Amino acid sequence: MTIRSRMSSTLVALGIGYSWGSGLLTLGDKSTHKFLITNLKVGSLGVSSVRGAWNRPPPHRGDH
Fold first, then answer.
1. pLDDT tens readout for residues 24-59
2. Is the CB of residue 21 less than 8 Å from the CB of residue 34?
3. Pick the residue with more confidence: 1 or 25?
4. Residues 1 and 60: beta-carbon distance below 8 Å
5. pTM of the predicted model over 0.70
6. Domain extents in the chain
7. To 5 degrees, how large is the angle CA 28–CA 30–CA 33?
8. C-alpha 10, offset from chain centre
């Protein structure tokens, strides 16, 4: 079963920062699940953005 995940995240901060992100998780049975991530930070400064993807291939089956 292959599991795939895509997400993006953004941080905006000036003393107190707030970050948020969302993504889509796709399981091997083709079902999809949306998710949301939020975070509040104190003592942060700046703006950042992250995007990523992750694939987990099925385990190999064979004689050992």
1. 888 878 888 888 888 888 887 888 887 888 787 766
2. no
3. 25
4. no
5. no
6. 3-44
7. 100
8. 11
